[in-house]
Amino acid sequence: MQAEGKAAPLRWGIAGAGAIARRFCRDVNQHASLGRVVAIAARDQARADSFAAEQGLPHAFGSYQALALSPEVDAVYVAVIHPQHAPLIREMLLAGKHVLVEKPAVTRVDDWDELVALARQHKVLLLEAMKVMCFPAMRTLLSRLPALPGPLSLRAAFGSAPPREGKLFDPALDGGAAWDVGVYPLWLYAAFCRQLGLAAGAPEVQLQRAPGEVDLSARFVFGGALDAELGASIVEDLDKAASLTGAGWTLVIEGKWWNPQRVCLQGEVPPISWPQDIVQPVEGGGMQHEADHFARCVQDGLLDSPWLPQALTRQVLGWVEAGLAPARPAET
Hints:
Elements: E1 10-15, H1 19-31, E2 35-41, H2 45-55, E3 59-61, H3 64-69, E4 75-78, H4 85-94, E5 98-102, H5 109-121, E6 126-129, H6 136-144, E7 153-159, H7 177-196, E8 204-208, E9 217-222, E10 227-233, E11 242-246, E12 249-253, E13 262-267, E14 278-279, H8 287-299, H9 310-323
Parallel strand pairs: 1-2, 1-4, 2-3, 4-5, 5-6, 7-10
Antiparallel strand pairs: 7-11, 8-9, 9-10, 11-12, 12-13, 13-14
């Protein structure tokens, strides 16, 4: 029997049975406090059954429509390839499901605006799964950020060199560096500007691509009160640490900054005191933190999030969409 005053755990279903779906399922069912994955949906029943057996889930659906109609599911984590996000999100929202969608949420600002309006119409929550913003170390960093004197510049990148095949290298599937990993540093910049009360203008965008190819690397350069150089690549390993620099000090998010667990301040920062380095390790892959934050928002009846605001998703989508527009000259 449920204890009085304690909300029931959020019942998650996952749309898509790939690698990221497995990571989300493991993190939530092994480490989350406010929810549990109970269902998986794939494009065929055999694949769903295999995933359910592997992860110990009670429900397996051979279509996304069946997941949308299931009374056993409160919220859906959308983990299919991103060109399929928009219609699938729409289907889940129309069925009254809350939706957490893998990044990038969609690839067109107009689609995001339509989906946010639809979610609010149906009084359900729609958020992009930018997990870095929900890690405890990042939340601590953001809470301390306004105490730092005059941040001047941010440097952050996300790059690796996977085999040159598959969806990442397919223009028809909106592949490329900007959509795949560029959204991470763009989100970091947008979140820092928001926390500091600074306006973020349009970036200068530099792309490495040949005609008919996806962008193999992308560079976003921002001016203004907080300038930034942000990088993304699917053909090169880039620096995994991120840094925020001011007069006489540098704040470093160590390790893989997109899985933040240690933040160190270097240099003197008078007259404020920085109590200590931020060291907040996580269990597993850390996706439980975004799932628990999402569940808390649902419990509180919120239609947006203080940590994953829909406006920041829109801002980042706009930067990438404009940067990849065909009219822009491409570097080779």
